[in-house]
């Protein structure tokens, strides 16, 4: 394992950054994409949400989580 880390020129600070910043951001991105695909939105809102998250992964995911209830279609009685 140490040979691989030396080959990739990764030290402890880089591993900490990957573990505490990159991996959670990727998980958030994937969770938001799954939520968008499974939600009941109009096609326009669905495509705009996916485009926002693909173009701006971290900021787009956070913004989507803030406004997602407004994007979903109201329940029909």
Automatic annotation (TrEMBL):
Its main location: membrane. It is a multi-pass membrane protein. Keywords: Cell membrane, Membrane, Transmembrane, Transmembrane helix. The keyword Protein transport does not apply. It holds the Pfam family PLDc_N. The keyword Transferase does not apply. Residues 27-68 form the Cardiolipin synthase N-terminal domain. The chain crosses the membrane at residues 15-34, 46-67. It is found in: Cell membrane. One of its GO terms (cellular component) is plasma membrane. InterPro entries: CLS_N. This is Cardiolipin synthase N-terminal domain-containing protein. It comes from Solitalea longa.
């Amino acid at each position: 394992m140490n040979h691989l880390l030396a080959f990739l020129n990764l030290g402890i600070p880089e591993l900490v950054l990957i573990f505490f910043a990159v991996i959670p951001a990727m998980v958030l991105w994937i969770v938001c994409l799954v939520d968008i695909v499974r939600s009941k939105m109009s096609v326009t809102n669905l495509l705009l949400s996916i485009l926002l998250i693909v173009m701006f992964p971290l900021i787009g995911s956070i913004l989507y989580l803030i406004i997602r209830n407004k994007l979903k279609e109201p329940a029909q009685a």
